[in-house]
Amino acid sequence: MAGLDEALDGDWAQIGERYEQRRHDRERPLLTPESLYLRPDELRERLNALPQVYLHEEAPEGAHGGSIRHPVTGLPDLRAEPAAARPLAALESLLADEAGRVLFLAETAGRRERLMERLEQADLRVPAVADWTAFVAGDAPRAITTGPLERGFRLTEAGITLIPEAALFAERASQRRRRERPERDPDTIIRDLTDLSVGAPVVHEDHGVGRYIGLQTLNVGGVDTEFLTLEYAGGDKLYVPVASLHLVSRYTGLDTEHAPLHRLGSEQWDRARRKAAERARDVAAELLDIYARRAARGGHAYHYDPEDYRRFAEQFPFEETPDQERAIAAVVNDLASEQPMDRVVCGDVGFGKTEVAMRAAFIGVQEGHQVAVMVPTTLLAQQHYQNFSDRFADWPVRVELLSRFRSKKEQNAVLADLAAGKVDIVIGTHKLLQSSVSYHNLGLVILDEEHRFGVRQKEQLKGLRASVDVLTLTATPIPRTLNMALSGMRDLSIIATPPARRLAVKTFVSEWNDALIQEACLRELHRGGQVYFLHNDVDSIERVARELTELLPDARVRIAHGQMPERELERVMLDFYHQRFNILVCTTIIESGIDVPSANTIVINRADRLGLAQLHQLRGRVGRSHHRAYAYLLAPPRRSMTADASKRLEAIAAHEDLGIGFTLASHDLEIRGAGELLGEDQSGQMQEVGFSLYTELLERAVRDIRAGREPALDRPLNQGTEVDLRIAALLPEDYLPDVHTRLVQYKRIANASDTEQLRELQVEMIDRFGLLPQPAKNLFRVTELKLAAEGLGIQRIEAGPGGGKIEFGDRPAVDPAALVRLVQEQPAVYRLEGQERLRFNRETEDADSRIREVEALLQTLGAGKPSPSDDRGAVERPARVES
């Protein structure tokens, strides 16, 4: 308990200190610490009065009467075999031999529901009980509850067997959620409606840009249905059923005030969409020309010794995160293919992008190719040189640096050796692109923070991309990079999983306040840390340093900016790294600077003058270790700032989660106006139809041109299948009262691409909001039907109490023989109306029987397709057929 005592006393002292600093402000009266917290001695007293439990594997010597023994035995291997005829055969065998009682455990309520469904598939019906106590008190031979049990066992004396979900199925709910959060699909991050507020612009693919008003429940044909309400020019309203939310996406391109507002029923939207489709077609053709030139020229397929690569990878001192592993695998695959690589790896500062680059460099060097690592600043070049030198120290690889920190003689020697092929990896700034630099056999270029390079350098890089492999590392991809990646011309990997024990940076936006600055700096210095104080004006930086020295007389303050002599700047940065002083007053030169793990507070003065990508990068300077880090963004009053600056600060403060760089880049798209894909023009058709729809049009144009088809400019985008079963399929208000949360869930359900995603969503919703009411279950089942019908090329399904009809698209993927057989064998039930409609007459009074009827029909029409894996017989979505 000694550690606890120290922590209590330390925290209490800190609370008292903060109270003393702030209690004199009359405008913000504070409560005393005693009225908010228990004093340390009171807390100890209360803790000591509680019963205390000590756990031992063996009974400790001299154990008194309070000890309880529970003899246990382990369980055999009960893992399910999905491919077998009876997947749970091992469990069935155990239960057949088990005379005692059995309790199944799942980690959450959502996992419990899923486990019950899986057990039911094996004809094992088990009732749910509240908890362990309820099970012991009851007499049910078998039951299921929630509890965090890792491995199963049998209590031999009590005759009770405990079987956790993990013993039956390889996947572990919490483990998967914790370590392998679903990969952040770049497309989804931009297209979802998470940030939507009332009055925000949204795009409906058929009707254009309107404003979101809210959700509304209407009774249609005796059935309650929830609609998204959109308002268009002239106050016209459009009600979009939640089942059609896949047609609605957030508008990104201009801010809310300047976003277009279309008129319903006019040709305005059709014209805008056609113009955008034409522009997308031209851009696609140009992009594909670049792409084709790369493909025709062909790249180099790298071959490497797997054993050497394994040894190099094992020297990485940390455990790779799942996202990092995926990014590394993607880069290795790119290098092994004949196609020149052009991949963007987007990950927050300190998430392990450099290791991805090092693995790529290792493979490049193994075949005798040279690798150029290009960075925006001399300081970052120095750090990369140090890191690469350390990482390749045990290998016959020569790493060199071309930078201002080297003398002219040293630079000339490196250039000569580079041309002669004696240097394997060269690190430097954009000087590496100059004509005076010649390579012996350049194979791979690694770009760090491409958005910091100028237009001319980017044009030089564009020429380079056709002939060598290019890997771009970035924390916040600028819109143009983002657009290229999303349109599939450059491959994109997102590293969104933080390293173990990494905490998010707490971000505060405030006006200049001496007390706040003093408290922020002192809190960091008292825990032995260091502070960056960013003031991006060289003329007044010394005055600010003097003011800080007066505010913090015990602090050791130094200055760093880009106009200092190079040697002096390098010495200041190294002194800061070695903790020879504790507050660095600096300009944005630290944006791509060296890592200082002990610096965990950054104060940014006049943050309103910095771009979003810059703010994100600067905030990433702190929080590089397992300590909680703080960022204070100082700005003038809101009325003195531009609207864009205000939005940037709101965006950075709202997104302090780890791995949020990609979402910030999508905000950047809105704030600056989405960039055109080719050239530097910042306006265009994209602003008229919105970023999401423009990228969809572009994707389709690219697909058509690749397939040798002329893009059909007037063809609507994929509309999805309409399913109307005249049943209540919604998230009831009494289940999910918050309108915004309900909207986000609707959009996620509508955007699910397969039944597995739907199941995960179902589990998540049960865990978050409780067991699903019947209308919500119907919503999931109808969405599954929709997915299955889409794969079969069906446009619309209608069904009511007495039957219904199915309408086919232009090129349905149904089995013709199965369709003919249906009509011939049951003419009283099934009837074809022309080529595009199948009508059926069958009584289905309740929702369940109606859904089962349509499921069975889709399964028959999709004969020869993969059989359904869902316990309710929903059809697994077949491979999509491109029309």
Automatic annotation (TrEMBL):
GO terms for molecular function: ATP binding; damaged DNA binding; DNA helicase activity; hydrolase activity. Its main location: cytoplasm. Gene3D superfamilies: 2.40.10.170, 3.40.50.11140, 3.40.50.11180, P-loop containing nucleotide triphosphate hydrolases, Transcription-repair-coupling factor, D7 domain. Residues 868-883 have a biased composition (Basic and acidic residues). One of its GO terms (cellular component) is cytoplasm. Keywords: ATP-binding, Cytoplasm, DNA damage, DNA repair, DNA-binding, Helicase, Hydrolase, Nucleotide-binding. CDD domains: DEXHc_TRCF (cd17991). Residues 334-495 form the Helicase ATP-binding domain. Pfam families: CarD_TRCF_RID, DEAD, Helicase_C, MFD_D3, TRCF. Its EC number is 3.6.4.-. Residues 859-883 are annotated as: Disordered. InterPro entries: CarD-like/TRCF_RID (IPR003711), CarD-like/TRCF_RID_sf (IPR036101), DEAD/DEAH_box_helicase_dom (IPR011545), Helicase_ATP-bd (IPR014001), Helicase_C-like (IPR001650), Mfd (IPR004576), MFD_D3 (IPR048635), P-loop_NTPase (IPR027417). PANTHER family: ATP-DEPENDENT DNA HELICASE HOMOLOG RECG, CHLOROPLASTIC. This is Transcription-repair-coupling factor.
